[in-house]
Amino acid sequence: MKSTIFSVAAFAAVAAAAxxxxxLLAVRQAAPxxxxxxxxxxxxxxxxxEDKFYREVLDKFSESDFEGAGFPAPFYANLKTVxxxxxxxxxxxxxxxxxxxxxxxxxxxxxxxxxxxxxxxATASVLEGVGVSAYLGAAADxxxxxxxxxxxxxxxxxxxxxxxxxxxLAQSPFPSPFDVPLKYNEVYTLAxxxxxxxxxxxPPLPVKAFPMxxxxxxxxxxxxxxxxxxxxxxxxxxxxxxxxxQIYAAFITxxxxxxxxxTPVEGGFSLIVPTADEGMAPIAGQMYxxxxxCNTVVTDETTAAGPAxxxxxxx
Length: 315
Fold this sequence. Notes:
alpha+beta
């Protein structure tokens, strides 16, 4: 088993160097410049994945399969509309990139592991939620007002997809007054397990995947703030450089991360789902959790693993 070793002392030095807001700004300024073309290709990469996912689901399962799994007839028809929306997003982004003189990425080869209707729709719910968070997280970096408006119009549609599918799964369609923005590498970490290979002609994207972190299947079926859960680090371990400093689980929200102390257990870490302070975005809905040695900010430099997706029922 390999070990991922990171320096909590180094993280503390970065966090203490400046107030949190200024430190985040410095990290952004130090990062390689990301162009609108990069962002559109990043969005297109995600839209290709969603587009292919829905096409495979609809090819593999019939309307009667959905009805047999407990989904009423209108759901299958509406899923076809969702699939068409994703195909339209692919066509739109591809055309926009070509018009800007940028080579658009092409569809990759994927493995979604589609074994049942219920599993497929659970995966669809996660993908739609990640899509919302991806567009929301990238919005501040888009320079062109036209592109920003177009991305916003796609984001709102992805949000409706997410709410509809969540409702079909008997989850709250709007569990929080805020959606969660994710950074490029956080999103790519969640998408990467589905991507098996991509055309060699695809332009490279300025993204990387962190070590994968997953919620244990043995976690309680209903998770709320105060619930003890386990996050799995399959095939690797996360340790502080000094072997004893505290590891934290950071729940990402639009108003800032909410931290919980993480305790090492066999195969990962256990923690208690925290409660956000009053006036902050709640820990509710499809949440994203990373492991870190820092309990003040979450950046690419302080993230050791994740994010994991954890569904938290509103209290």
